[in-house]
């Protein structure tokens, strides 16, 4: 991938519902990039950059006051880490954005740990453990981003699929049907597991 993605003026997602042709184009470019096509990454970033910016804004909105990253910086740092995923087995646009969200989560976590170290352990970094669709749901309590990561690690030991579902819904902002497609399960299963995962996290993160 290019070292930094280009600036894109529009913040609107380039993937409206039912955009099958765009989905196919992204998947084809991912395969070409994995095969070593130097031009594929340039074409890919033009298709995905606006959506990556949307994910970054969503992730930063959940952080409390005090974070220093802007959406563009978060996208750029995540993009650099995506370069290490070149050999991943790319299956779809949705899978790509799920991995991108994981990279953003790692960037935010690293920044939170750095800030905490500078404060000598004082003052946790707060985010809002809201649903993946804030406009359609009631936010949960604010939690420490590092505590959330620790809780997700424990959840992954107990139930890896539920932990991955939290990544897909909370960090990638995927809808229930999109998450179901990535996980290869029914939407009903995702709905049930998402409710259980959120309840488990609430309990684990209670102070």
Can you offer a commentary on this structure?
Mean pLDDT is 76; it is low at 8-20 and 131-141. The protein has eight helices and two strands, in the order ααααββαααα. Helices cover 62% and strands 3% of the residues. The protein is an all-alpha fold and 207 residues long. The protein has helices spanning 20-34, 40-61, 71-82, 93-118, 145-158, 160-171, 176-183, 187-205, and strands at residues 126-128, 142-144. Strands 1-2 form a two-stranded antiparallel sheet. The protein has one domain.
Question: How much strand?
Answer: under 5%
Strand order of the largest sheet: 1-2
The number of distinct helices, counting runs of at least 4 residues, comes to 8
Tell me how many strands there are: 2
What is the CA-CA span between the terminal residues? 42 Å
Which regions contain 5 or more consecutive residues with pLDDT less than 50?
8-20, 131-141
The topology string of helices and strands comes to: HHHHEEHHHH
Fraction of residues in H or I helices: 55-70%
Q: What's the overall geometry?
A: globular
Mean pLDDT: 76
Query: How many domains make up the coordinates?
Result: 1
Helix/sheet category: mainly alpha
Biggest β-sheet, characterized? 2 strands, antiparallel
Q: Any idea what the radius of gyration is?
A: 17 Å
